[in-house]
Amino acid sequence: MRTIRTSRASHRVLLHALLVATFASSACASMSRKEKGAVIGAAAGGAVGGVVGKNTGSTARGAIIGAVVGGAAGAIIGHQMDQQAKELQLEIPGAVVERVGEGIQVTFASGLLYDFDSDAIRPEAGQNLRNLAISLKKYANTDLLIVGHTDALGSTAYNQDLSSRRANSASGYLAGQGVNAGRLHSSGKGELEALASNETEAGRQMNRRVEVAIFSSAAK
User: pTM of the predicted model, to two decimals?
Assistant: First the structure.
């Protein structure tokens, strides 16, 4: 796992996010637990996740770290994530399953899910997503961020659109398998978060991927 390095500017943003979260927490004392979680999550989780995502080059990883719960609840969630990650490694062959903080990141090579230049889930790839859906329904106290990525071939605008369509397609497929749509969020990053050089085919293959961030919704 890569070491996270943050600049002074990033530290200032992190501090600002935490201050905003503190203010949001006190300002919404009369709200329900779910409403409080929504306010604090938007103020702190999103800001912290954005900073971490920028510094690690991974929006999915940033979303997991930004949604940290901590304390005793975090320890319980971590134990659950350990178990779920082990199961996913067995149930979705070909995907890369990683434990990140209190969550899980699952990375699919785009060729595992889609044909070239397509956002339609390949029939033979559906089993992987069906197995993921079964796991998500078993561990129902989590939210997901599905992030699409492309290589740098073609225009930036086209790649952005393709990555968004692929992320939405995966999200829609999971919803069709019975995963609560309220848990699913999708985003396309196009060619912006490359893992390797786009100058070689091997590098472009690494960059064409879909990342699924699984993190706790307990704060809500």
Answer: 0.74
